[in-house]
Amino acid sequence: MIKVNVKNDKIIITGHALYDDYGKDIVCASASSIIISSINCVLQFDKDAISYQENKDGLEIEVLKKDKITLTIIKNMLDMLKDLASQYEENIKIIGG
User: Fold this and answer.
1) For the whole model, what pTM was predicted?
2) 2-96 — its CATH code?
3) Taking the domains of the chain in order of start, what are their residue ranges?
4) What is the DSSP string of 41-78?
5) pLDDT tens sequence across 37-81
6) Does residue 7 sit in helix, strand or coil?
């Protein structure tokens, strides 16, 4: 299961969707697309608005600036992930936020 843990200014994403085999997992692909597109979008507006770090356990995003654009993109990302989680409850879970 993918877990998206929202704590204050940090979003920690861990786990695997396990919906299907590697390379065929539409839940994993969807979550990855949502997250990567959102990170890239924020960074296009302000490269100092967020920081992110990928490691063997997952991905951590930290919101460094709380301007309208950054917060709107991050909220949109979380809304899309919540929508995905409502359709695939056994594969992705949002905690907090």
Assistant:
1) 0.94
2) 3.30.70.1490
3) 2-96
4) HHHHH-TTSEEEEEETTEEEEEE----HHHHHHHHHHH
5) 999 999 999 999 999 999 998 999 999 999 999 999 999 999 999
6) strand
